[in-house]
Amino acid sequence: MKLINELKAERAELIAKMEAISNSENLTDEQRSEWTGFDDQIKKIDGDITLAERQEELNKTNVRKMENNTPTEERVPAGIAFRDWLYEAVKDGGKAPSFRADPILTSTDTGLINKQIYPGIDILVSPGEAFLRKLGATFFTGLTGNLVVNSMAQDTATFPGENTGAASANMAPAALTLAARRVSHSQAISKETLAQSIPAIYASILQNLVNGVWNAVVADYFTTIRTDGVAPIAASAGATVGFADIVNLEAAIAQLNIGPAAYCTTPALRADLKRTAYLTNQQPIWLNDQMNGYPAYCSPGCQATYIYFGDFSRHAVAQWGGLEVVVDPYTDAKKGLINLTMVALFDTGCMNTRGLSIVPIA
């Protein structure tokens, strides 16, 4: 059957033809016969339109019934899922030993996805993880076994003279091995807390455990920048933070073809930089979260006496599996406490030590 719109268009065309015939002053028998034929066609089209409209109505009714009868997947808020698992784990005496948090968390390289679970609570985004992604750190996730990546300095080719052998770039690649290291964060909750049924309480508990793990990863990230061979440049003024230190960090790697660069330091050193003018009677070194024309960040995970600069995509975060919570209802049973431990496997390492520079401020 034709579509309703097609039928209506065909009818309108016939009506126009009938009107043209009826406008004639002297109708011939042939015109009268033609007009009657068009009228019969319109009556047939009207019947087809009525039938098509009725069928369309029945189709819509059928779809609504199918939708009402189709089972839908119920999304359980994370706080409720965690609470229910915790009830079962304690009730069974530890027979349900672990809660996998990976369905709740995102660890993709494509950016964060905020999934709201309870009014005002989001356990997806840890401030530590969000900070490293904003900084530009490279993430390797879903790993099994050790991850070996090339780690090398950056060098420049030469233009050799006539009849002169080309100089070797002399880049000696090193193998950076990232191996799973256990990160854990524990928290104790009381039996009285377990008796609460508000999902927000359990979402907050889970959030604290996640945050604790990522805080440790952030601290390790900045520690391994130094320990992986990034040579510190000499501080210009000892205990005083000076603009010379900031520009010297840039100069240390400015000849390299690096990606977007940024500065990073501790909240305490940021405060000093906000109080220190880059020249006498001029604006402070740290202004509007920028220094020396580059973005400037701060994190408690930075080592206390260092300012960092460079392309932070040259430093990697590797993750094996997801985050897992283990329940222990026994150790502090006399105190009415239940110990929760979140366990994860991470490592961090520098893929190009020439892409970053650091300066110690005593």
Molecular structure report:
It is a single chain. With 362 residues, the protein is of the alpha+beta class. The chain folds into 2 domains: 4-69; 80-360, phage-related protein like fold. Helices cover 38% and strands 21% of the residues. It has 8 helices and 12 strands. It has helices spanning 4-22, 29-69, 78-91, 127-135, 191-194, 199-227, 243-253, 267-275, and strands at 98-100, 138-140, 147-151, 174-178, 181-190, 262-265, 290-291, 294-298, 306-310, 315-328, 337-350, 356-360. The strands form 3 sheets. Strands 1, 2, 5, 10 and 11 form a 5-stranded mixed sheet that branches. The N and C termini lie far apart (86 Å).
Give a topology summary:
Layout: H1 4-22, H2 29-69, H3 78-91, E1 98-100, H4 127-135, E2 138-140, E3 147-151, E4 174-178, E5 181-190, H5 191-194, H6 199-227, H7 243-253, E6 262-265, H8 267-275, E7 290-291, E8 294-298, E9 306-310, E10 315-328, E11 337-350, E12 356-360
Parallel strand pairs: 2-10, 6-8
Antiparallel strand pairs: 1-10, 3-4, 5-11, 6-9, 7-8, 9-12, 10-11
What's the overall average pLDDT, rounded? 79
Number of strands: 12
SSE ordering? HHHEHEEEEHHHEHEEEEEE
**What is the level-2 CATH architecture name of the largest domain?**
Alpha-Beta Complex
Biggest sheet: strands, sense, closure? 5 strands, mixed
Helical fraction: 25-40%
Number of discrete helical segments = 8
Beta-strand level of the residues, as a percent range? Answer: 15-25%
> Alpha-carbon distance between the termini?
86 Å
Please tell me what the overall shape is: elongated
CATH topology of the largest domain: phage-related protein like fold
- Per CATH, the class of the largest domain reads Alpha Beta
Radius of gyration: 35 Å
User: Which ranges are low-confidence, i.e. pLDDT below 50, for 5 or more consecutive residues?
Assistant: 70-75, 102-122
Helix-strand makeup class: alpha+beta
Q: What is the number of domains?
A: 2
